[in-house]
Specification:
Length: 295
């Protein structure tokens, strides 16, 4: 599975009896509000967003990951920028303060002996980032795919850093379920997690599966992108985004939480058990993945 950088679900699966209805959202705020209002019972949310919601009393539990890696910091192809130090005093676009892409920028700044005071961070919808870089209104942008690949494949941008190289255990989008669904229909939640983890294994099983997934996800009801862009994401390099390991690992969330504290996104540590339920991932079973292109 691959995240939609604007928010929302990106694939449809058949869960059998008690099947769920899937919907795509146009942005993270709308998705967050629907989840908070219990209009939807499960969603892919940004990990920091899910953690913050649970801490603020929204009955939310993370039950699986969506992917690993898949984020990057892009600069112009002909830019002299070689490292974060070369971006001192420059504008860098991020999707949201809650985005792990934002935390990736902070992590790379810290590794370079810098802080956010050394650059100017501006929030921007990921679809607008490639054109902003092209026009020179930002010197770099941090985002999830496919909006790095869009500019790279067009020839006017290149990755400065990829999470695959700099943050191998990077996680971003997490499958988050409202606790009332866990209490009232745990079997449905288990089937959902089974399909999510099986879809991840299916994607890693062959290049042909990745090609087919790109063709499906490119459709107008999903990513609405050219298939070539998504195929590029899934193959250049192949581990640009990975889906085979969707386990929940406390140490990885602890790292995100520490970065959130440093960024003042949260004001206090959040207990892992407050926002994670590992039960379904631990009990996940392989199921058949039936793939068909949407109409």
């Amino acid at each position: 599975m691959q995240r939609d950088p604007k928010g929302g679900t990106v694939v449809d699966v058949t869960l059998g009896e008690g099947a769920a209805e899937f919907a795509k959202y146009s942005g993270w705020p709308e998705l967050k509000e629907s989840f908070m209002a219990s209009k939807i019972q499960a969603a892919y949310l940004l990990a920091p967003m899910a953690m913050d919601l649970a801490d603020k009393g929204i009955p939310a539990k993370i039950v699986a990951l969506g992917h690993r890696s898949g984020a990057l910091i892009m600069v112009k192809a002909d830019s002299p920028v070689k490292s974060m130090k070369d971006l001192r005093g420059q504008r860098i676009a991020i999707p949201s303060r809650f985005a792990v892409d934002h935390l990736f920028v902070r992590r790379m700044l810290k590794q370079s002996g810098m802080t956010v005071k050394d650059v100017e961070l501006v929030e921007m919808p990921p679809p607008d980032m490639p054109s902003a870089l092209y026009a020179g209104s930002v010197a770099a942008y941090a985002t999830g795919e496919p909006f790095g690949a869009v500019a790279e494949k067009a020839g006017y941008a290149r990755p400065l850093y990829m999470t695959r190289d700099q943050w191998p255990n990077y996680i971003c989008c997490v499958l988050t379920v409202r606790e009332e669904l866990i209490k009232t229909n745990p079997a449905l939640v288990q089937r959902l997690v089974n399909h999510v983890m099986s879809a991840g294994a299916w994607l890693e099983a062959s290049d042909a599966n990745r090609t087919l997934a790109a063709e499906i996800a490119a459709g107008p009801t999903l990513f609405n992108q050219k298939p070539e862009i998504l195929k590029f994401v899934l193959s250049n390099p192949r581990d640009r985004v990975t889906y085979g390991d969707l386990r929940l690992v406390k140490a990885e969330f602890d790292e995100i939480m520490q970065l959130m504290l440093e960024a003042e996104i949260i004001s206090r540590p959040i207990p892992y058990e407050k926002y994670v339920d590992e039960t379904f991932a631990r009990n996940a079973k392989q199921v058949e993945v039936i793939v068909s292109k949407p109409n």
